[in-house]
Design goal:
The complex is a heterotrimer of chains A (165), B (101) and C (555). Chain A contains 5 helices and 8 strands. Chain A is an alpha/beta fold and 165 residues long. An 8-stranded mixed sheet of chain A has the order 2-1-8-7-6-5-4-3. The longest helix of chain A is centred in the first third of the chain and has 13 residues, at 33-45. The chains are: A alpha/beta (165), B alpha+beta (101), C alpha+beta (555).
């Protein structure tokens, strides 16, 4: 069973994945980079919530100037071993200032959720009999880490300094 | 050609051979030597055991049976898996007999 | 050395708890082997020929006696009574059961040892100079930065799924005992023109199937920014590194494919761009540096004259002192190399009893500290010169005083086909045979410094490319053959060995080594090491000696 977890809650996905469709359906859709390039003006003119899904070989720099048009950016992990989207997520959040939904799709394993969260993902499509339960367990895996990322949470170094005052 | 099915046991990593009754043993002498007709069926059984999380990476290996009745793998790699490393003090040889699953 | 605080302990405990859960899920079939494999690799668990192998990090090769005793306990309780030191300052156990690994990890954690990221496509153990903190030629102790890099790289959320493994080495000395030129990132502490200490950053070195010497990507960077710069190198690699072919996935491939100038451009762009940076405040550097403060040295004088007299009176001691003991920056002290290469020994192996005995010696003679060298030997870094003779006797009783460190029987060998599922040929019997063929201590001393490195396959874990003599095991139609290379070196002028000729059968290798050594002895000039003579005369005389004729060698 697959479920969309967003901000720690299970949601019905309001978006339709149109990346494989020859025709783009009505309502909120997620399109591919190719579809975006081909139908950019028409998609903007629709006035409906829009999302884009990038493959792991597509850097977010390609949409750097268009971020304002998207309510959702989905980054694909075609195989869980393919770790490029972790970097793309950080670039989107920390460098390009993207602040809306950043969704992890594809082969998203529980053991990766913590890393994905720290890199800036806030939504996950999870395959599990109990997606929300699995998410909650995995999200609590770690309470301390060494490296700073854009999530602003304190690192071990920061916690040490707080202790010593 | 004579063959046997070899694998590693999932839980402890031990080298195991498919034996009679579709069980697994650590001493090659207790394993089943297969002729060509039996080999594919035995491998299919082993693959089922892999799907049941009992063993990992089962494969067929060619063996020759010596005068002492103990099969010996033809490939040096499998020979080492069956009889242990060729250096050291001998404390790393597999157990002789027993230990069937 | 570094001591964990509550945060370090908590992170390790959470990691072990997560792995215990992953093992349970695997055994219950909730994770397939394909899904589980990268997870267990990230905890250093390999499935090898005979059993699971557990690789334990010894960060920058620094070990306490307490930790060594725990290794002995684990060897007895969970393994077959011995352990194996590797070329990356790690320890391996070769007879481990998966279901016991979480318990072993907890035992290791109790002495502040982990297996986190000792394998997998992530940043591996940060390695360094085994003489760090005590070498006379050292500019600054590299272990401070190794520890900062270690913490930085452990469970890094962005870089846990790199295209391939990533190895970083740091040296604080112009004599590079850490081989930074053959690492994915090499960091070399040195002073810039203004006299400030900082890092030369090298990138794209490595051995394996396609060996490369690293390029300099930055001549000098200040210490506060080194983590941020490393992050940019990693990010460009994570994004651009090849993921289509496992043999083309290391950073050296992409650096050479796009050229160092282009790679540098991308790194500098990322480094200059916005985002959260892992900056190193000076007080944090100082806080970590405090852990590596020198021990409570006594104020002593050098007693080299006394030792010379002892050496003359007792030649066996003299040979050991001249060869296995290195000069120390603190007057009256010495660095003792403990050779794990007795004739007939398996390189890098030590029994549980040996570990306990050595831990006792470390407590008595070395402030409870040891180091692991890349040559699969151990080091006692803080020995008083006046204790050397007593220590030598004790080591000799344990079989750990063979006076061959840095000499030709100080062989480096990977575990090879006796243990490793990747290997094509057995490296350990070759190492053993060489060790048993050249036993005369005086002859070894006369031959002088020489490195022999043996790898059982092209993955080159024995670092054969940078051996003065490199030996590579290959499989030819089901039989083991060994290809020799000459002239490799991992020092400042790093060089990769040249192929000598067609593969030799295992039984012919010791004769070939003999022929090579004899040729060197014939041709050498005053003061030349083997490597020097080779660089001067070239490969032809050696080809002749081993193959009898140049035509045969060209076949």
């Amino acid at each position: 069973m697959s479920g969309l977890i967003k901000n720690g809650e299970l949601f019905d996905d309001p978006f339709t994945d149109a990346t494989g469709s020859p025709e783009i359906p009505d309502g909120p859709v997620i399109v591919s980079l190719e579809q975006w390039k081909a139908h950019r003006d028409a998609l903007i003119a629709r006035g409906k919530p829009l999302g884009i899904k990038l493959r792991s070989d597509q850097s977010p720099e390609a949409i750097a100037d268009d971020l304002a048009h998207f309510n959702v950016i989905a980054l694909e992990f075609p195989k869980f071993r393919d770790g490029r989207a972790y970097s793309y997520a950080r670039i989107l959040r920390e460098r390009l200032g993207y602040a809306k939904e950043l969704r992890a799709v594809g082969e998203v394993l529980l053991e990766q959720l913590h890393f994905m969260m720290r890199c800036g993902f806030d939504a996950f499509v999870i395959q599990d009999p109990d997606p929300l339960g699995a998410y909650r367990k995995a999200a609590a895996d770690y309470t301390v880490w060494y490296q700073p990322t854009g999530d602003g949470r304190p690192t071990a170094m920061a916690l040490r300094r707080r202790k010593t005052g | 050609m004579q063959q046997m099915v070899i694998a590693n046991r999932l839980a402890d990593g031990a080298v195991v051979f498919l034996a009679a009754g579709d069980r697994w043993c650590t001493w090659i002498g207790d394993g089943r030597v297969l002729d060509e007709a039996e080999a594919e069926l035995a491998l299919a059984t082993a693959r089922r055991h892999e799907a049941e999380n009992l063993v990992v990476e089962p494969s067929l290996i060619e063996v020759t049976v010596g005068d002492d009745g103990v099969p010996r793998p033809v490939a040096i790699r499998e020979h080492i898996r069956a009889f242990g490393p060729t250096v050291g003090d001998g404390s790393t040889r597999p157990q002789v007999a027993g230990d069937n699953r | 050395m570094y001591r964990y605080d509550e945060f370090d302990h908590r992170l390790v405990a959470e990691r072990i708890r997560q792995f215990r859960r992953q093992v349970q899920r695997r055994l219950a079939g909730e994770l397939t082997e394909d899904q589980f494999k990268p997870l267990r690799l990230k905890n250093g668990v390999y499935l090898q020929l005979h059993a699971y192998m557990l690789r334990i990090n010894i960060p920058y090769g620094t070990l306490s006696s307490r930790q060594l005793r725990k290794f002995a306990e684990i060897a007895r309780k969970y393994d077959r009574g011995f352990g194996h030191f590797t070329t990356r300052q790690n320890l391996q156990f070769h007879w481990i059961k998966l279901e016991q690994v979480p318990d072993i990890l907890e035992e290791l954690a109790s002495v502040e040892v982990t297996t986190i990221q000792s394998s997998g496509n992530c940043v591996r153990n940060i390695t360094s100079d085994q003489y760090a903190g005590v070498a006379r030629d050292e500019l600054a102790d590299p272990r401070v930065y190794c520890e900062l890099l270690r913490q930085y790289s452990v469970l890094h959320p962005e870089f846990s799924y790199l295209p391939r493994k990533f190895k970083i080495a740091v040296t604080g000395s112009p004599i590079d005992r850490a081989a930074v030129a053959v690492h994915d990132i090499g960091l070399r502490l040195h002073k810039n023109a203004a006299g400030e200490i900082g890092f030369e950053v090298l990138v794209g070195g490595g051995l394996g199937r396609t060996p490369h010497v690293a390029h300099t990507i930055r001549d000098w960077i200040e210490p506060e920014n080194v983590l941020a710069y490393v992050e940019s190198i990693l990010r460009v690699y994570n994004i651009h590194g090849r993921r289509d072919n496992i043999h083309k996935a290391r950073i050296k491939i992409i650096v050479n494919q796009m050229g160092i100038d282009r790679y540098r451009e991308l790194v500098e762009q990322d480094y200059a761009a916005g985002g959260v940076k892992p900056l190193l405040p000076t007080d944090e550097i100082e806080r970590i540096a405090a852990y590596f403060a020198p021990p409570d040295y006594e104020r002593l004088e050098d007693i080299d004259d006394e030792l010379e007299r002892l050496a003359a009176a007792e030649p066996a001691f003299g040979r050991w002192w001249k060869n296995n003991v290195a000069p120390h920056k603190q007057p009256g002290y010495a660095i003792v190399n403990v050779s794990l290469k007795a004739p007939g020994a398996v390189p890098g192996d030590i029994t549980a009893d040996g570990m306990d005995a050595l831990a006792d010696l470390a407590d008595r003679y070395s402030f409870g500290e040891l180091r692991v060298s890349h040559r699969q030997n151990l080091v006692l870094p803080y020995v008083r010169q006046r204790d050397l003779h007593t220590l030598w006797r004790a080591l000799a009783d344990l079989g750990l005083a063979t006076p061959n460190v840095g000499l030709m029987t100080d062989v480096i060998a990977c575990p090879g086909l006796d243990y490793c599922s990747l290997a094509n040929a057995r490296s350990l019997p070759v190492a053993r045979d060489i060790g048993m063929r050249f036993v005369d201590a005086d002859e070894l001393a006369a031959i002088g410094p020489m490195t022999i490195n043996i790898s059982g396959c092209m993955n080159a874990c024995g670092h054969h490319h940078v051996g003065n003599i490199g030996i590579l095991g290959v499989d030819k139609r089901g039989k083991e053959f060994f290809q020799l290379t000459l002239g490799g070196s991992s020092d400042k002028n790093a060089s990769l060995g040249d192929r000598l000729g067609p593969g030799l059968a295992q039984e012919d290798v010791p004769d070939a080594i003999r022929a090579i050594v004899d040729t060197y002895l014939d041709l050498r000039e005053e003061g030349e090491r083997f490597l020097d003579t080779y660089r001067r005369v070239g490969i032809e005389p050696f080809k002749q000696a081993v193959y009898g004729s140049v035509e045969e060698a060209a076949a």
